[in-house]
């Protein structure tokens, strides 16, 4: 039985016992991995093409607009794509790009910013990118032979991360310690929000704790962990936690109380759940309670959110919830859930979780293979295959007439057909492959890459598109997000690449844990692997 209540005195759900089958199980196989140099070469080419376009038309600004060959400063003007690309350039062994990025990092002025600052986006892209770059460059086995690191530039990577965090930390100066996500600089100040969200509060703790562990200054980790405390001990209980471990979305930053009980594994909530288990992977000694909360959330999700479409009961998606009422819609963003649940299954030696994650990954695969372009949509819905009476429930309506045929075949219908260069489906294939060694997942990732490469290549780089379900993807939105470099290209590459010190290992012996922006962060604590 769990020790949550005795430790913190607030647990009302501790009576929920895990199923009898929940004991850890020793796996009787270790996956064999194969690499595909032809594929990794093609993915490196795509990186080079995107990088060249960015460097020529946008650097040192944030993002390339590849069709108009200009730039956007959508992430405060510090060169978001360059910082986000660093860890990918390092694992790909791209010495020229690494040199260009390191030369830039030492010159970033984090005291002035273009536009309002998001604490969350700045943490996952910039802090995560800098800390990951530092970790990779200080792990000898992680660097390819043709990369040599200038120690002055290396030191600047960490000191710039620290300087950035020193400017951002004003966010935590709230009555409760729950951070304000919205900031302005010069001088650093809060913009005055009254509320913050689950993901934006709960996706800081890995980066800020890592910064503390690298600098020896415990202040950064303490700030993020204090904000996280309100998410781990949600109040008011009845409203905030409709199912054990599954919590609401909006939090009052004055008193740390939840304002609703609406949520899921979707955007706005997603990476809070992701980081619960990743903190345990980072350091099982300090973050055991985070793991307990993740287990509750996953058990509740398997019991209450797992849903099978009436037209394709072979598929499994996770529903959202409004209180205890399910809502049968999901997102490309939510497809990370498969990979995260597989990771937890590996780390906790729970094959039930691995299997459930593989089911979710296979269903996200169908959101790709069912469309004209072979790319999955931004948001989609389905009708749950519940009882006959439930089929008519107000929260379980049938497909819109215009998509009846598509729904019968695909098991979902499309609410928003954009694709904005998101990684989550390929991310989940990556964990599925590392868990099983089944080359089917490499093939799925390659097919996805080819579809994206064929549909989104635009002008001097790659662009988001308006409609995955028409030939050619509709039209280009003329925008290349920085996470294209950090995530899509890195997961696409890693799943086809040689084994390496930064790869996830099925027996939990890996040296790194990935932040939500796919930046590998060096693990801190002991590694209890079998
Ligand atoms: C390292 O980089 C610094 C800063 O750009 C430069 O002044 C120095 O000469 C470089 N050192 C070497 C050995 O290249
Ligand atoms: C910052 O505050 C201004 C003025 O109240 C508001 O218009 C703006 O939307 C706020 N920005 C953010 C990111 O909340
Ligand atoms: C947040 O809590 C404070 C203190 O209880 C209260 O005065 C304020 O109205 C609440 N804000 C919201 C948005 O509920
Ligand atoms: C829904 O689909 C699942 C998985 O295929 C199946 O086990 C279940 O019996 C189905 N439920 C109903 C009511 O048909
Ligand atoms: C569902 O609702 C439709 C229209 O209201 C009705 O004709 C049908 O009988 C209902 N089916 C069930 C199983 O309740
Ligand atoms: C990817 O797209 C680029 C740009 O259109 C093209 O040159 C390249 O051949 C494509 N790669 C593959 C493997 O199809």
Automatic annotation (TrEMBL):
Coiled-coil ranges per UniProt: none
Transmembrane segments: none
Signal sequence residues: 1-22
Gene: mns1B
Protein name, UniProt field: alpha-1,2-Mannosidase
GO molecular function: mannosyl-oligosaccharide 1,2-alpha-mannosidase activity
EC number of the protein: 3.2.1.-
This protein's UniProt keywords: Disulfide bond, Glycoprotein, Glycosidase, Hydrolase, Signal
Xref: SUPFAM superfamilies: Seven-hairpin glycosidases
Catalysis performed (reactions): N(4)-(alpha-D-Man-(1->2)-alpha-D-Man-(1->2)-alpha-D-Man-(1->3)-[alpha-D-Man-(1->3)-[alpha-D-Man-(1->2)-alpha-D-Man-(1->6)]-alpha-D-Man-(1->6)]-beta-D-Man-(1->4)-beta-D-GlcNAc-(1->4)-beta-D-GlcNAc)-L-asparaginyl-[protein] (N-glucan mannose isomer 8A1,2,3B1,3) + 3 H2O = N(4)-(alpha-D-Man-(1->3)-[alpha-D-Man-(1->3)-[alpha-D-Man-(1->6)]-alpha-D-Man-(1->6)]-beta-D-Man-(1->4)-beta-D-GlcNAc-(1->4)-beta-D-GlcNAc)-L-asparaginyl-[protein] (N-glucan mannose isomer 5A1,2) + 3 beta-D-mannose; N(4)-(alpha-D-Man-(1->2)-alpha-D-Man-(1->2)-alpha-D-Man-(1->3)-[alpha-D-Man-(1->2)-alpha-D-Man-(1->3)-[alpha-D-Man-(1->2)-alpha-D-Man-(1->6)]-alpha-D-Man-(1->6)]-beta-D-Man-(1->4)-beta-D-GlcNAc-(1->4)-beta-D-GlcNAc)-L-asparaginyl-[protein] (N-glucan mannose isomer 9A1,2,3B1,2,3) + 4 H2O = N(4)-(alpha-D-Man-(1->3)-[alpha-D-Man-(1->3)-[alpha-D-Man-(1->6)]-alpha-D-Man-(1->6)]-beta-D-Man-(1->4)-beta-D-GlcNAc-(1->4)-beta-D-GlcNAc)-L-asparaginyl-[protein] (N-glucan mannose isomer 5A1,2) + 4 beta-D-mannose
Enzymatic class: hydrolase
Pathway: Protein modification; protein glycosylation
Family: Belongs to the glycosyl hydrolase 47 family.
UniProt lineage: Eukaryota, Fungi, Dikarya, Ascomycota, Pezizomycotina
Pfam families, sorted: Glyco_hydro_47 (PF01532)
